[in-house]
Amino acid sequence: MKLYKLLSFSFLLATLTSCTFTENITINDNGTGKFSVDMDGSSLMAMAGDQIGSQMGADTKKSMDSTFTFKQLIAEKQDSISKLSPEAQKEIKKLENLVFNIKMNGEQKQFLMNIATDFKSVNELQDVLQSMNTLQKLEGGANPSTPFAGLGDNKSKLSYTYNGKKFTRKAIIDKQKLTEKANDSTADMSKMIFASSNYIVKYHFPKKIKKVSNPNALFSEDRKTITIQYPFTDYMENPDKLNFDVEFEK
């Protein structure tokens, strides 16, 4: 199955059931780290594993574990990309270092997807998900090519900052675009699709955490990791609810 076809089919599967999206960031002592977003749609495998295997031409009794880089995907769609505006091409180029992995196992009722990239500074992550949403343009504005593409379509600008003393996650809403989205005929359908889905942030830092501005944050035993869970509808409709600051012990 070609990469783009696999991604498109993966998005279709993800929209058929509730999912859990987990945004992970690990920051090292020197400020470098790793960013990833995991999607767990295993409940769909429990309901319709055989049908999924049939659609993909695969035996669900056998496990599937496929990994590729977005650089490969971009190469496959180069003809289409060359027809986009220079701005859109620049956005897509930002995705070259992302790695995509999909795991399916019918016997274990497992359906997992993951995108990941290393970074030299969290500043490199500005709007990485929004850049992924540009892939929609390859299909003339049709459904996003991956479940993750839709994550960049919450009409906000997301930024991360970290200076060793403080970490900030901040989404600034574009109110005009948010109004346009609310009036979109597909808005209600999107709300229905993700009504029972969750969005989790899980961040690991090299220092012990002193405090977090979100009172719902859960701490690891060593106080270096926080986990916060939100309804996915908050992520899509009120992305600024996911804003918070982390302060560290000296």
What attributes does this structure have?
alpha+beta, 8-stranded mixed sheet, 4-stranded antiparallel sheet, 9 helices, 29% helix, signal, Lipoprotein
Structural class: alpha+beta
User: Termini distance?
Assistant: 52 Å
Helix content: 25-40%
* Gyration radius from CA atoms, angstroms: 18 Å
Stretches where pLDDT is under 50 for at least 5 consecutive residues are 140-145
The helix-strand sequence is HEEHEHHHEEHEEHHEEEEHE
How many E strands? 12
How do the strands of the widest beta sheet line up side by side?
Answer: 3-4-5-2-1-8-11-10
C-alpha geometry: globular
When the domains are counted, the total is 1
| Main pleated sheet | 8 strands, mixed
Count of helical segments?
Answer: 9
Question: Which percent range describes the beta-strand content?
Answer: 25-35%
- Overall pLDDT: 78
Describe this structure in words.
The protein is an alpha+beta fold and 250 residues long. It has one domain. It has 9 helices and 12 strands. The model is unreliable at 140-145 (pLDDT under 50).
Q: Topology, please?
A:
Layout: H1 3-14, E1 20-27, E2 33-40, H2 42-56, E3 64-69, H3 70-76, H4 78-81, H5 86-93, E4 99-105, E5 110-119, H6 128-133, E6 156-162, E7 166-173, H7 175-182, H8 187-193, E8 198-204, E9 209-212, E10 218-219, E11 225-231, H9 232-237, E12 244-248
Parallel strand pairs: 1-8
Antiparallel strand pairs: 1-2, 2-5, 3-4, 4-5, 6-7, 7-12, 8-11, 9-12, 10-11
Protein name: Lipoprotein
Keywords: Signal
Organism: Flavobacterium chungangense
Short description:
Residues 1-20 form the signal peptide. This protein has helices spanning 3-14, 42-56, 70-76, 78-81, 86-93, 128-133, 175-182, 187-193, 232-237; strands at 20-27, 33-40, 64-69, 99-105, 110-119, 156-162, 166-173, 198-204, 209-212, 218-219, 225-231, 244-248.
